[in-house]
Amino acid sequence: MTDIFPYQFSQLKVDEDYPKNIVDNWGGWPESWLIEPGVTRLDAALHHPNGKFYFFRGSEYCRYDPKRRTMDDDYPRNIVDVWTGWPSSWINDDGETRVDAAFYSGSKRKVYFFKGDEYIRYAPGVGVDDDYPKITANEFNGWHLMNVGSAKCAVSTGSRDVVFMGQGRWAGYRMGHGNDGGGIMPQSPDGWPTGTQWDNPDAGLDSTKWGRCYIFKGSQYLRLSQD
């Protein structure tokens, strides 16, 4: 499996003919997630160790099979009903929740979810770890140096590495180490769309098997690849 390390994020290149419309290119999008015909948006996304892609919007999530290039049946589902041990402080009076960003860490074998200034750590097949949520800035070493604000877009770029985006910036982070460089959007990577729309993406998704990652904003997405 090819790893894209954070210090190489600036060397990635936006593929030609992007951005593209999400609904037009990701098969089986649920109608209940359409804001209007052909239009959707995301809150978060992650590449799960089971090989599936997970998309989150509001209180629900969908599971996408990249081999079949379509959503799995019987989705969307309610986050709280399926992700065991979801913290009560993250659930509103209507029994619903949401997430701002998510990624899977191969070195920790955990899924990390972010909401506001907090995060939780989830063990696949088990549930949310004890003593969560925690304050992101207190637990992620050097968080204040990254200047990305609260986590709104996170992309796992290797077994120990993740890129956070926000406030017009991207920042690399190495699990167990801390801040590992960064830059201003859209100076990097090459081909990033001009204008302010893409300065603060909604969600990110890695596909390191192919040396790619996907960045989502509004109804569109980018595909980034290694040269």
From TrEMBL:
<dbReference type="InterPro" id="IPR018487">
    <property type="entry name" value="Hemopexin-like_repeat"/>
</dbReference>
<dbReference type="InterPro" id="IPR036375">
    <property type="entry name" value="Hemopexin-like_dom_sf"/>
</dbReference>
<protein>
    <submittedName>
        <fullName>Hemopexin</fullName>
    </submittedName>
</protein>
<dbReference type="Pfam" id="PF00045">
    <property type="entry name" value="Hemopexin"/>
</dbReference>
